[in-house]
Amino acid sequence: MARAKGIKPMAQNKKAFHDYFVEERIECGMELKGTEVKSMRQGRMNLKESYAVVKDGEIFVQGMHISPYEQGNIFNTDPLRPKRLLLHKSQIRHLFGEVGKMGYALVPLSVYLKDGRFKMELGLCKGKKLHDKRSDIAARDVKREMQRALREQNK
User: Fold this and answer.
1) SS3 annotation, the chain
2) Is 66 in contact with 39 (CB distance < 8 Å)?
3) Nearest to 51 by CA among 42, 41, 60, 38
4) I need a surface site. Which of 3, 30, 86, 122 has the fewest CB within 10 A?
5) pTM of the model
6) How far apart are CA 61 and CA 63, in angstroms?
């Protein structure tokens, strides 16, 4: 059976865009168990409170919840187990240097199927302050009002 071509989004971390400025995006593979893959294909995962850490020259994603596969019996793993991300050594070194700076974090932004394989979009993010969040909300409200006014004008 041939692999499906193209990109199919499976999960988004919308909270990350609310809490952080995304400065850089990196695509990486994930090391998964068989029942985790089956559960993820059903869309049973959550990225909301997840983050990535660099340990011993490897990157692990923590807090990513993958629900146990219903027909998985003894082969199911811990839903919150750390999952290793697959990146080149030079990319890991670059991210390790950037995360060492004050206020930066590695945050999973999305998980998607790319040509039949699970990929994660990892973001190098800087935390937002409260006034930054307020200005984003105000800008979004202004944009919404402009669209509403244009719609009324075009009627």
Assistant:
1) CCCCCCEEEEEECHHHHHHEEEEEEEEEEECCCHHHHHHHHCCCEECCCCEEEEECCEEEEECCEECCCCCCHHHCCCCCCCEEEECCHHHHHHHHHHHCCCCEEEEEEEEEEECCEEEEEEEEEEECCHHHHHHHHHHHHHHHHHHHHHHHHHC
2) yes
3) 60
4) 3
5) 0.75
6) 7
- Report strand pairing: 104-114 vs 117-127: antiparallel
Q: Tell me how far apart the alpha carbons of residues 124 and 56 are, in angstroms, rounded to a whole number.
A: 19
Buried/exposed code over 134-146 (b: 16+ C-beta within 10 A; e: otherwise): eeeeeeeeeeeee
Burial of 39 per CB tally in 10 Å (0-12, 13-18, 19+): buried
Structural domains in the chain, sorted by start: 8-128 (2.40.280.10)
Phi, psi of 64 (to 5 degrees): -80, 120
Tell me the two tokens of residue 51: 């983050």
Longest Cα separation, the chain: 62
